[in-house]
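dumping these here so i dont lose them again. two proteins, back to back, each one seq then structure tokens. dont judge the mess
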Amino acid sequence: MAHQPTYATVPTQFITADNGVTYAYRRLGPKRAIPIIYFGHLASNLDNADPRIMDGMATQHEIISFDYRGVGTSSGKDAQSIADMATDGLAFIKALGYTKVDIMAFSLGGFISQELMAMNPTLVRRLILAGTGPRGGEGISNVPGLTYRDMAKALVTFVDPKFYLFFTSTETGKLAARQFLARLKERTANRDRAVGLGTLQAQLHAIKRWGHESPADLSVFDQPVLVINGDNDRMVPTPNSYDLAKRFPNAQLHIYEEAGHGGIFQYHDDFVKRALAFYAA
């Protein structure tokens, strides 16, 4: 029997959309009429998707991750707004030939997914929003300042900034951080191009602007939504998750205890079970 690829070994593919951008992407799992499109976090490339989550979802679904325009090995210049990132996401999905998708979105990816749904309300069947919040949500405009402070702290302590940004400072949080960061290094060949400072700055500027904009009317979406987070998210404060769940008329909410922004990575086994059940319902 042929060896099944994992997220650490699956090849990177490329597709050129109508907007002229060539997107880098990875797809894993059995072919499905409705795949899961994964929208990643701030300054993430293909190598920043958690292998345990991607492999877990691929047991029952086709899951596709991709680099935003100008990020990693995707072509073009960095998008300057969350709406532009959503337009790019739509172009990528259209290039793949899908008219209906499920979405799994984390952090910045959740902002993008909300704008995408506003642009094409019938495209998304089911949506998971993790570690994220609504447009204009509490503390979202503060993400740039927090990010730069934690990056400086990470520089002097010789760790990845996600160690501080995604996890709590408890012993449990520190252990989860180390395990998560180790998983991100499992892919040893054909790794993605590192994300540059220009991309980080462009995305942070877009997040700050989005955090100051007026809230969207999410009550118009009747799709099932799973909102999920840790109980101590410093990056996109946890109250935003409660707010999101109230704004969507057909939402479920789960909050992980003793977890931060990266709660789904800390509790990846439980998250995969919840996500599989949610998409199958």
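---- next one ----
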Amino acid sequence: MTQTHAEFEARLRQIGAERYHDLHPFHHKLHGGDCTPDQVRAWVINRYYYQHSIPMKDAAFMSRVEDPDLRRAWRSRIEDHDGTETNEGGIRRWLRLAEAVGLDPDYVASCEGVLPATKFAVDAYVRFVRDKTLLEAVAASLTELFAPKIHANRIEGLLKNYEFADDSSLSYFRNRLKEAPKDVAFGLQWVLDHADTQEKQDAAAKALIFKTDVLWSQLDALWGAYVDPARIPPGAWQPGEGLANAQAA
């Protein structure tokens, strides 16, 4: 039976309440100040792969959109990450965070040392958005519904617990507090309007679950490689590599 807009929105929000990666122990460790400098660096390196792939994901989506209004509404997401003449963009802000934690931004931007599982998860998301229906692609982006809370907690936790944290190094998260609500308001309404059968609602819900799995699996990879049991796979970043200077260790 097809759910009302209110019922279906509640269903989507429940997915976030149960499956969003703010529940992952790595985030509790990070925000609580319990990560070592190298664990923070590993997170920054691997999360960059996700950040730099988002514009490619959005470009793949837009390449299939025939409606100019939808393309016009969506393209700001690319600008938010890649930047414009008046906005440096999220990718550059993330590289400023990388520099603040002692990493060479060029090394991070090269994506060398990214965990294999991170690559598999993020690349799978890009393919999902490229190949699935537009409804599923938009629904997968709705993890943004839950992002403002984790950004606020991250800003508070990092400022409280880490010397590198300041307005400059955390500017990515502060800007997402302003950018994400705009994106998610549009995306949520679009999904509610277009998921007009039970089959489509089920597909949209599964797409959102898929995206939460993408985010969760990235943290599982970090935990296994750099926390417990700390088995770094061949080719992945090793502590001491890619530092901005010899004293940054």
